[in-house]
Design brief:
With 192 residues, this protein is of the alpha+beta class. 44% of the residues lie in helices and 20% in strands.
Length: 192
């Protein structure tokens, strides 16, 4: 069908995406994360921000690639920092303060999940939900505290590339977080 959609059926790419999303919806149905398809994510709000699991699909003839990210937004940081980042200004209310690829966080590389069948979709969702249950949700809960985001963005011992691929945006958000928590070495941070 050359990837064209007909009124009678879904394309193969649509089916692969459907397999993953339906399994993710089932997995998140017992959590506080709500599916927001317009933003390609599952989101749980908290006082002063939100946590999210973001998905992105790329489709090819024989497979689809899905990238899954975990992130958190702190309104206090984003309201001050986002206008100075290279992010879309129309996206200010939806921007993440920090976000990391789940697979990169788990494995340290930038491999993506490959969807070829309902079974691979099952495996992807199972691996992701196991990680989130055992570690990811705890980490996101830890990051609800601005001091934890400050530490993540500003402490030199932490590998930052997983949480912010853009060094300029990371610096803007890091400086903002440091100021909000009255970090004692703030002057040193802004010079380095």
């Amino acid at each position: 069908s050359n990837g064209r959609r007909t009124s009678m059926n879904l394309t193969v790419a649509d089916k692969r995406q459907y397999w993953v999303l339906e399994r993710l919806k089932d997995a998140f149905s017992t959590t506080t994360f709500e599916h927001l398809p317009e933003y390609h994510q599952f989101r749980a709000t908290f006082n002063g921000g939100f946590q999210n699991i973001i998905y992105s699909f790329s489709h090819y003839d024989d497979l689809s690639i899905v990238e899954l990210f975990m992130g958190i937004r702190h309104d206090a940081i984003e309201q001050l920092a986002h206008p100075f980042t290279q992010g879309l200004q129309s996206f200010t209310n939806e921007s993440n303060t920090v976000v990391a690829s789940i697979k990169a966080y788990q494995e340290g590389g930038f491999e993506r999940f490959k969807v070829t069948s309902p079974q691979t979709a099952n495996d992807i969702v199972e691996q992701t939900t196991n990680f989130l249950t055992q570690e990811g949700f705890l980490l996101l809960d830890h990051l609800k505290v601005i001091q934890s985001v400050d530490q993540l963005l500003n402490d030199l011992s932490i590998s930052k590339h997983l949480w912010s691929l853009n060094p300029f945006n990371r610096a803007v958000r890091g400086i903002t977080a440091a100021r909000l928590v009255f970090r004692p070495d703030f002057d040193f941070l802004i010079q380095h």
